[in-house]
Structure formats: C-alpha cells, structure tokens
C-alpha cells in the first residue's frame, strides 16, 4: 500500500477513535433532550440549578467543566448568548451535581468532591484527653492526623470553582425568556487552575488542548 494511502487510513482511524471518545460522555437531568425546562430552574421562579449526572467519562479525565448558555435575552451586557452557569475544576470523581447546588444568590459548588465530614465540628478522639488545660500529647497527635486527612479535601487547589455569568454573579442564574438553554459538560485531561470568578473567555482559552470528552443537553424554555 502506498505511503500516502496508509497515512490517510491512519488519520481516519484516529478521527473515528476521537469521535468515539467524545461520544462516550452522556449528560442527564430531570428533563430530556429538547423537552420543556422545569419552571423551578427559571430565573423568574425558584432560580436554582437543576440536578445533573453523567456517565462514560473518558479514561484520562482529570476534571470537568460545565458551561450553560441560552439563546434568550436578559443578560446585562447583551449581545452574545447569555451564560447562566460556569463551573470548572470539578473533581474527576464527581459524577453528579445535586439539585439546588447553586442559585438564588448562593452556592455549595466549592464542596464538590469533599469528604462528608470535611469542615464539620472538630473530631473528639478522647473526651478525657484534656483535663484542667492539660492535653495528652498522644491524643493531640492523633487529632492532628485525623484533621490533616479531612483538611486535604479543603485544599483550594482541589476545589471546584464558579466563573462569572452574564448576570454579574458567580452562581447559577436561570433563564427568564423563551428560547432554549444548553448544558455543555467537558471532560478534561487536566485542571484549569484558574481562580474563582474567571470569565467564560478565560475558561475556554484554558481548556484548549485539554478536552477529551463532551456531552450536551438542551431544553426548551417557554
């Protein structure tokens, strides 16, 4: 077989492999593709984020990015499609975003992937470990070790972050005008390492060369 023909076949095989990889990731919510967007998640109703879950993350996934845009109106800056939610550096082991995770001026996104007990009340190893101000060194060392394991999940570098939306905040803001809204989930082979509050342009730029999978889910707003 001529060298040129072999190169063409290799390129085709590589392209098909990439397409299969990109098609593996699937995104689901409490609405189906091209179905009506639930009113609870509209900006003029409860204004809270919908539940999202996904399967089929590619093998080399290290983080996820979620970008939510609509073709409706209502953004302060006008012009481009409004961005309703922007989440990046979602930990690679996370497979769902619970309902009401973000929105109505509040957010719990930073806790994604953390241990259930992270940030809770101090662990009591031995109630008799401290008497009259004296602390048993062994108990103190054990508590330090336990808290150290818990605090690892509080490392800012490992936290998911929200970027700026078209509405001035860094949390979910639902659509208020008729049209459609699209949730785009990207699997990345690395983290973006951007600070909280990055713009969509900064996130998209940082994603270049890192995307290994993508899934989209569109709903109708009416």
Automatic annotation (TrEMBL):
Keyword list, A-Z: Signal
InterPro entries from the UniProt entry: PEBP, PEBP-like_sf, YbhB_YbcL/LppC-like
Coiled coil: none
Thylakoid is among the record's keywords: no
Signal sequence coordinates: 1-23
SUPFAM superfamilies for the chain: PEBP-like
Lineage top rank: taxon: Eukaryota
Keyword field contains Transmembrane: no
Protein name per its UniProtKB record: Uncharacterized protein
């Amino acid at each position: 077989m001529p060298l040129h023909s072999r190169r063409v076949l290799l390129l085709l095989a590589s392209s098909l492999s990439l397409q299969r990889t990109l098609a593996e990731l699937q995104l689901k919510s409490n609405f189906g593709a091209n179905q009506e967007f639930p009113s609870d998640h509209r900006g003029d109703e409860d204004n809270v984020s919908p539940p999202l879950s996904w399967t089929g993350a590619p093998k080399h996934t290290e983080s996820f990015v979620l970008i939510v845009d609509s073709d409706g109106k209502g953004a302060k800056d006008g012009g481009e499609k409004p961005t309703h939610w922007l989440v990046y550096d979602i930990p690679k082991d996370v497979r769902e975003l619970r309902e009401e995770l973000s929105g109505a001026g509040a957010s719990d996104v930073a806790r994604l992937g953390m241990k259930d007990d992270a940030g809770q009340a101090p662990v009591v190893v031995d109630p008799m470990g401290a008497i009259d101000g004296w602390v048993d060194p062994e108990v103190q060392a054990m508590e330090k070790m336990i808290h150290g394991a818990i605090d690892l999940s509080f490392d800012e570098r490992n936290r998911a972050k929200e970027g700026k939306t078209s509405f001035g905040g860094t949390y979910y803001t639902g659509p208020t005008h008729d049209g459609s809204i699209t949730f785009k989930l990207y699997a990345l082979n690395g983290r973006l390492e951007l600070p909280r509050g990055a713009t969509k342009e900064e996130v998209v730029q940082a994603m270049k060369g890192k995307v290994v999978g993508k899934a989209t889910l569109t709903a109708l707003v009416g």
